[in-house]
From TrEMBL:
Domain of life: Eukaryota
Protein name (database record): Pre-rRNA-processing protein IPI3
Oligomeric form and interacting partners: Component of the RIX1 complex, composed of IPI1, RIX1/IPI2 and IPI3 in a 1:2:2 stoichiometry. The complex interacts (via RIX1) with MDN1 (via its hexameric AAA ATPase ring) and the pre-60S ribosome particles.
GO cellular component: nuclear pre-replicative complex; rixosome complex
Coiled-coil residue spans: 442-469
Disordered, as annotated region: 484-516
Family designation: Belongs to the WD repeat IPI3/WDR18 family.
InterPro entries per record: WD40/YVTN_repeat-like_dom_sf, WD40_repeat_CS, WD40_repeat_dom_sf, WD40_rpt, WDR18/Ipi3/RID3
Organism field: Wolfiporia cocos (strain MD-104)
Localization (cell): Nucleus
Keywords: Coiled coil, Nucleus, Repeat, rRNA processing, WD repeat
Length: 516
């Protein structure tokens, strides 16, 4: 099965009646791949763990009207598990490895569970008001929470799991309080904690860029409308900020400038600290045409495709729009969920264990088979902390398959084996002549030869000019030294002649005195 990118979206009814769903669509054609019913998760209340390491993935959806968490597996289109929670959740998040789940409540409380065992490792009052959004960093080492109280806190996962700190109130690694109104979205950048940056949006018309390592504010971006959701390019070159009026602003984090010798160069935008403010205005028609996308419908969810070429937009009317990032051209609109509200949207490779597309090996190039792949374990979450269950819990680790390698001392089991035949084959590939290893074509080589010949001619001309300058300098230096030598010789001869004349005059005077 070849890897294909797909769109995963969660929907909720626009009115109080009815149920939404979680659906997967092909990103290129818009074809529906799978649908999971009986869920109506709100904004920031859906989380996905992808299939990896030979285990199937799953989806979590917190219900808005009940303290229930729905669990779905990619392999079945039915509800796999209903987890009864301590209270209703206003936001959830899972770490990228699928080990832990965090849930925030309307009272500002955060719960922290291990997914495979269901053990509640921690529960604490993190904010004064509702927790609007939760995000794990890319390495899963920290949890960030944004609240109605306009603050953002970063929590180290290691401290939340520490047995010695279970009787103490968790303290955040840092707290950012520069927003003045409720926080609406958080996006974590690439990098391990704390060597990463974070984007946060709030109702106060601002998006702020933070540096976790220095615990400081780098730049503040001001927008004409309140920002409801964000998405950040994986290379951190630009981000998109959407508002409820249907406006999506593209903000480039780099700009072109001219250096001291007039050449074009790129430089980073912002980074000046608290006083560094950048206003994103859309009054200028030229700027609006370049950086503004007008959807015409309230935007509720944003994401960028895995190739960083497409912007996928979910709206309050159930439409999913796909835009080309380079030209801002609308490529496709999915109206399958008309009458619903898109509350969550993400792009991912089509799961190999997706219902109807099962692959036993979970490999990208494997053929499809009817047998189900092993599913990742999801246990019912504890509703209160249990010290005894935590002490008795054994941490399970999935090890890769072991291989037997024949050595001089006998057979040995290793985790990673590199067979001799495979090593020789790889070595032969890398040391073979360029013509056999997929060298460029004849036309490409001719173009390269012409380029090199032109470069050699330019270098020869520069070398000739340099030699001419050097010869001129050498001749000038020699000529000056010769002239200085001649002048010194003339001065010496003049001084010698004067001395001889003085001697003759003295001799004549002595003769005159002798005669007298």
């Amino acid at each position: 099965m070849q890897p294909h990118e797909c769109i995963l979206c969660a929907t909720a009814p626009s009115t109080s009646t009815g149920l939404g769903s979680i659906a997967l669509h092909d990103v290129q054609t818009g074809t529906s791949l799978a649908s999971f019913k009986q869920t109506s998760a709100g904004a920031h209340c859906t989380s996905v763990v992808q299939s990896r390491d030979g285990q199937g993935g799953f989806m979590l959806a917190a219900q808005p009207d009940r303290s229930i968490l729905n669990v779905y597996n990619f392999q079945k289109d039915q509800l796999a598990l209903k987890i009864v929670l301590p209270e209703k959740l206003s936001s959830i998040a899972t770490d990228p490895q699928g080990n832990f789940c965090a849930g925030g409540t309307s009272q500002g409380r955060i719960y922290f569970w291990e997914i495979a065992s269901g053990i509640m490792y921690n529960a604490w009052d993190a904010h004064y008001r509702q927790v609007n959004v939760l995000r794990f960093t890319q390495d899963g080492a920290a949890l960030l929470s944004g609240s109605e109280d306009s603050s953002i806190s970063a929590w180290a996962v290691s401290r939340l799991l520490d047995d010695d700190l279970q009787n103490e109130l968790p303290t955040p690694y840092c707290t950012f309080s520069d927003h003045t109104l409720p926080v609406t979205d958080i996006v974590c950048g690439i990098g391990s904690f704390p060597s990463s940056r974070v984007l946060t949006a709030a109702v106060d018309h601002t998006v702020k860029l933070w540096d976790l390592s220095s615990k400081s504010l780098l730049t503040t971006f001001y927008f004409p409308q309140p920002i409801s959701c964000l998405t950040w390019d994986v290379t951190e070159r630009l981000f998109f900020a959407a508002s409820a009026d249907g406006s999506i602003h593209q903000v480039n984090l780099f700009r072109q400038r001219e250096d001291t010798i007039g050449r074009g160069a790129m430089e980073a935008v912002g980074g000046g600290g608290v006083s560094d403010a950048i206003r994103i205005e859309d009054q200028d028609p030229q700027a609006a045409r370049k950086r503004l996308i007008s959807v015409g419908q309230p935007v509720t969810a944003l994401t960028i495709s895995l190739t960083s070429a497409l912007l996928v937009v979910g709206t309050a009317t159930g439409a999913i729009h796909t835009y080309d990032i380079a030209s801002h051209q609308l490529l496709r609109t999915l109206a399958t969920h008309k009458g619903m509200t898109i509350t969550y949207i993400a792009t991912l490779l089509r799961p190999p264990d997706l219902v109807g597309h099962i692959s036993l090996s979970l490999a990208a190039g494997a053929g499809t088979e009817t047998k189900e792949a092993p599913m990742r374990r999801v246990a019912p979450f504890q509703r209160m902390r249990d010290a005894k269950a935590r002490e008795a819990h054994e941490v399970s680790v999935l090890l890769p398959p072991r291989a037997t390698v024949r050595t001089a001392s006998g057979d040995a089991d290793v985790l990673f084996a590199y067979e001799r035949e495979e090593m020789l084959r790889d070595h032969a590939f890398f040391v073979q002549p360029a013509s056999e290893a997929g060298a460029p074509s004849g036309a490409a080589l001719k173009m390269r030869v012409v380029e090199l010949e032109g470069e050699v001619a330019r270098l020869r001309a520069q070398l000739g000019r340099a030699k001419g300058v050097n010869d001129a300098m050498w001749e000038a230096a020699v000529r000056r030294m010769v002239e200085e030598g001649k002048e010194a010789e003339k001065g010496k001869q003049s001084a010698q002649g004067a001395n001889e004349a003085g001697d003759e005059e003295d001799t004549g005077r002595r003769r005159k005195r002798g005669r007298v």
